[in-house]
């Protein structure tokens, strides 16, 4: 009796388990078919379904499923190849889709292109993150063109900027600043009394005042052994006779002799306790003008040594046949005179070579 009662109970439990497992069995059976079965055209969907329904034998059904999987693989292969070949379409969509998507956010492809081009131009004009100077340094053709257009007065080319004046141009390290004292003196000489609030009748500094001068930030507070500066001095030379302007070769003569005279009479005169050593003196023609270039070393009583680089030339004569003598002088610590080092001494040859004075009548 107990066994007869327990038998129906076992049957009911088995039926309950079957109902619970039925969805999972169907999911496991149908899910692979969703990924492997090919797309069937709409017109043939009913016919395919009818043929599958009319197949009564298990082996026929197996043949149909194998055939379907084979056709699906063949259809998937060109589809994957098409997707790999159309990466542009994958990113930007089909023709018209990008414009439609951008219209949804209130913009157009043309507006984005113009905005990016404008951003690039603003970045180059402002030398954002030094990109303009990097471009001029890495592309020599652009650097030469920038100097031809005098853009190196704004952007450094090979670490140098250029000051363009009426009769000369001088290069200086891009990290150096214009000496404000010299700028103030020039402004006082050319401005009305009430413009700067400084009287022209105030005492002028003794000695020759540079026409331009540059130095590193805080250079005026540096000690003698770390002194660095660059200056351009101009001096007027009257004609040697009415209608006969001065000639630089007649004034200076031989380069070596003129350098010795400069060192003996001006740089280290007797009693100055300084010693000097001539390093180089030469005369050369450049851009239709004659230049004298010098190098010398000055040693002070404290033992500090400075190396000087100089280049001078005459400007063109004016209506009265007066000529301006322009002299560029670069002073650096002798300990930093190694041209391979990353300092101003490495730029010294380019600074001297870049000094140009307007051609005069020789």
Summarize the structure.
The protein is of the alpha+beta class and 362 residues long. It is 46% helix and 20% strand.
Q: Can you tag this structure with a few keywords?
A:
PsbP_C; 362 residues; Protein Transport Mog1p, Chain A; alpha+beta; three-stranded antiparallel sheet
Task: Describe the model.
The chain has helices at 2-36, 42-54, 58-85, 87-92, 97-104, 109-125, 131-138, 140-148, 180-190, 193-196, 248-252, 255-267, 344-354; strands at residues 160-164, 168-173, 177-178, 212-215, 229-237, 275-286, 289-299, 305-314, 323-333, 356-357. The strands form 2 sheets. Strands 3-4-5-9-8-7-6 form a 7-stranded antiparallel β-sheet, sandwiched between helices. Strands 1-2-10 form a 3-stranded antiparallel β-sheet. The chain is built from 13 helices and 10 strands. A hairpin with a 3-residue loop joins strand 1 and strand 2. The chain has 362 residues and is an alpha+beta fold. The longest helix has 35 residues, at 2-36. It has 2 domains: 22-85; 165-357, 3-Layer(aba) Sandwich (Protein Transport Mog1p, Chain A), CATH 3.40.1000.
